[in-house]
Design goal:
With 71 residues, this protein is α+β, with helices and mostly antiparallel strands. 23% of the residues lie in helices and 37% in strands. It contains two helices and four strands; from the N terminus they run E-H-E-H-E-E. It has a four-stranded mixed β-sheet with strand order 1-2-4-3, with helices on one face. Strand 1, helix 1 and strand 2 form a beta-alpha-beta unit. The longest helix is centred in the middle third of the chain and has 10 residues.
């Protein structure tokens, strides 16, 4: 089990998150940078919603991060 995965991969966040085997890793919360998601944004959000995550957008001091929490 992983309580928190914090990611800032300069544009690769969506690709990395979508490559995680969620049947193998139970991640309770994922915080990731939202600045460079581009065309992967809706695909990533739909993927996380399908995995039963709730998404809070634009969190943090600058609003550059999103937070996905398992329901």
């Amino acid at each position: 089990d992983i309580d928190l995965l914090f990611m800032d991969a300069e544009g690769l966040d969506a690709q990395i998150i979508m490559s995680i085997d969620f049947s193998k890793y139970d991640i309770k919360t994922i915080v990731f940078e939202n600045l460079h998601l581009g065309s992967d944004q809706s695909r990533l959000y739909n993927h996380l919603l399908d995995l039963n995550y709730e998404i809070r957008r634009n969190i943090g001091f600058n609003g550059w991060s999103d937070k996905a929490t398992k329901k």
